[in-house]
Design a protein that fits this description.
heterodimer; A: MetI-like fold; 2 strands; flat; B: MetI-like fold; 14 helices; transmembrane (chain A); MetI-like_sf (chain A); transport (chain A); cell membrane (chain A)
């Protein structure tokens, strides 16, 4: 490296040479770029360029007459008038409003329990509850899909052994709940650990002070613990927004087991995927992917602003 | 992987009272509570309620383990949460690896390739860039940092379709690079390394090395990288799990099974069983699923504290 020889030269000279020092400083101004360059090259190629290309694609249409032509916002207008897109969007919104509160409530409970010092074997609980997060979502969906099966799955076993009549979890009324269960199972422990980590940063003096003031366990939770984990909760919520609005793996895997109840437009991501593969409608698929990306970011942004604003109060 | 991780003495961050400083940034997480000593009473109700959640977390995994020991016919006829009599786990494993001329082994090697090159590369790029952003000033730095932080918020799944569209127009799909290149980017990993570098790589130390005549590359490898090692391992773990579990991207990029990773391959087998005239091989799908999760679960259990530190950094983010 020339920089090192230059440095050495500067060091050896008994009286620092001001112009050499300035040159060295100028050179150092750009060394940071050198460290950043490999990341940036891949970043531009694998992240920025695809987004730009998808935006570009979304403004064109393949027409029978005229071929590939500029179509302005036609694809976007079509998306907002597309009942298939709306039903997909409605499903993930419902998923978000039902599955996420249940999961986060369970995670919050588990995090508070872990932190309460009143739980036996906390390390065992912490590790075991987190374990499902390590399971690939495809394997989780396959596993639960088999368990849900009414012929050889656990549901079928329970029905025949105990004479129960648990309805088929993969029937059209229940299939979204069945996916919600898989997502809850997979991410409960992950969200628990995010919140638990935040709780561990509370200085113990606060608890001592509360103790001296004679605060009860629930008062401590309300006055100290809940405010302490608010930002962690917001992070968990943002991850859940992304997880819900970008739902793909679970429905796509369960579709092989229940092709009749899970349509190709079950979620917006599945719709975009199937449009580009089965339908070869790349332009429209690009528009759907961009609309969903924007919706996801807007919701995540709103969640974050609301969460942070409450924190300031 | 943790072997050889140096213990880092961070100036300006003395150890917590009565406790040796742990190497990662979350040592606060491990400090004992005075509160605990005062209230040793354990609640049975609380433990029982958590026990229910624990059972919920474990039942599917236990189901998988038990059913990986059954033959295809017994799978259909025996109770799901108990063994069927004939214990054929080993046969199932052998069958899983030999079915379709050893496709499973092939997919396993593909997955390892994606993990080593994709996750390893992502970690190296994120470490170089995170260190560069944390410890150098250069024109345009603020703008770059804002763009990369914005990219943390872009969900990977939202990128899958656009990336596929661009790669297919370039003729890059249906090969290993289509899976590897997009997984080389980890904005979150960069963010994590940046926080680590801000905290644990002292500017004074770098300046001292420069005065001693060390070049920037040498400084990075001999000083900075050692100090960043806990962060490096954490990012490596996150990216390894992300690539190991990756499904949407390889599914969309790969059309023939030669380059499938395990996740896509397993679902391909599962779909084959339902297709018309397809032979049901649920025992292989189940055994294959078990084999897919064992390495990653073991990695999790061995590297717990790194996970914890990564999650803490994540929660500081908001």
């Amino acid at each position: 490296m020339t920089a090192s020889t230059l440095d050495a030269a500067v060091r050896r000279s008994p009286v620092p040479n001001p112009s050499a020092a300035r040159r060295r400083k100028n050179r150092r101004r750009f060394i940071g770029w050198g460290f950043l360059a490999p990341f940036l090259v891949v970043f531009v190629f694998a992240l920025a360029a695809p987004i730009v290309y998808a935006i570009y694609l979304s403004f064109f249409q393949d027409r029978l007459v005229g071929g590939n032509v500029f179509a302005g916002f036609d694809n976007y207008v079509a998306a907002f008038q597309d009942p298939k897109f709306y039903s997909a969007l409605g499903r993930v919104v419902l998923f978000f409003f039902v599955q996420v509160p249940i999961m986060l409530a369970l995670s919050l409970f588990a995090a508070l329990a872990l932190d309460s010092a009143r739980l036996r074997w906390p390390a065992l609980f912490r590790i075991t509850l987190f374990l499902p997060y390590a399971v690939p979502s495809v394997v989780a969906a396959l596993m639960w899909g088999f368990i849900y099966g009414t012929d050889f799955g656990l549901v079928g076993n329970l029905n025949s052994f105990f004479g129960l009549s648990i309805p088929d979890p993969l029937s059209s009324n229940l299939v979204l709940a069945a996916m919600g269960n898989i997502a809850t199972w997979a991410f409960l422990g992950y969200n628990m650990l995010i919140m638990y980590s935040a709780l561990r940063t509370v200085p113990k003096e606060l608890y001592e002070a509360a103790d001296i003031d004679g605060a009860g366990a629930f008062q401590v939770i309300r006055a100290i613990k809940l405010p302490a984990l608010r930002s962690a909760f917001v992070v968990a919520l943002i991850f859940s927004v992304i997880g819900s609005f970008q739902l793909f793996n679970e429905p796509n895997v369960l579709r092989t087991l229940a092709p009749n109840t899970i349509a190709t437009n079950f979620t917006p991501n599945m719709y975009a995927y199937n449009l580009s593969f089965a339908g070869q409608q790349f332009n429209y698929a690009a528009a759907i992917a961009i609309v969903m990306g924007i919706i996801t970011m807007i919701v995540a942004y709103v969640v974050q602003t609301v969460g942070v604003r409450k924190e300031d109060r | 992987m943790a072997i050889g991780t140096p213990t880092v003495d961070r100036p300006g961050r003395s150890g917590h009272a009565g406790r040796t400083d742990r190497i990662q940034g979350t040592d606060t997480a491990e400090r004992p509570r005075a509160q605990r000593a005062k209230r040793p009473r354990k609640s049975i109700i609380l433990t029982a309620a958590m026990g229910l959640i624990l059972i919920y977390s474990l039942v599917p995994l236990v189901w998988l383990l038990i059913n990986a020991t059954k033959t295809q016919p017994k799978l259909l006829s025996s109770f799901g949460l108990w063994f069927s009599g004939d214990f054929v786990l080993w046969d199932n494993i052998v069958q899983t690896f030999t079915y379709e001329d050893g496709a499973f082994g092939h997919w396993l090697l593909n997955t390892l390739l994606y993990v080593v090159v994709g996750a390893g590369g992502a970690t190296i790029l994120a470490t170089l860039a995170g260190y560069g952003l944390a410890r150098f000033n250069f024109p345009g730095k603020k703008a770059i940092f804002a763009i990369i932080l914005g990219a943390v918020a872009i969900p990977g799944t939202a990128l899958a379709v656009p990336t596929f569209l661009m790669f297919s127009s370039l003729g890059l799909t249906n090969g290993p690079w289509a899976v590897i290149i997009p997984s080389l980017i980890s904005p979150f990993g960069l963010y994590l390394i940046w926080t680590y570098a801000m905290e644990s790589v002292p500017v004074e130390l770098l300046e001292a090395a420069r005065v001693d005549g060390a070049g920037e590359i040498r400084i990075f490898f001999t000083i900075a990288l050692r100090l960043l090692m806990p962060g490096f391992v954490t990012v490596l773990l996150f990216t390894v799990v992300a690539t190991w579990n990756n499904y949407f991207l390889p599914l969309i990029m790969l059309s023939d099974s030669t380059w499938f990773p395990l996740t896509v391959g397993l679902n391909h087998w599962s779909a084959q069983a339902v297709s018309a005239g397809g032979q049901p091989i649920y025992n292989l799908v189940i055994t294959g699923s078990l084999l897919t999760i064992v390495p990653i679960v073991v990695a999790f259990l061995l590297m717990q504290r790194y996970w914890q530190s990564g999650l803490t950094a994540g929660s500081v983010k908001g």
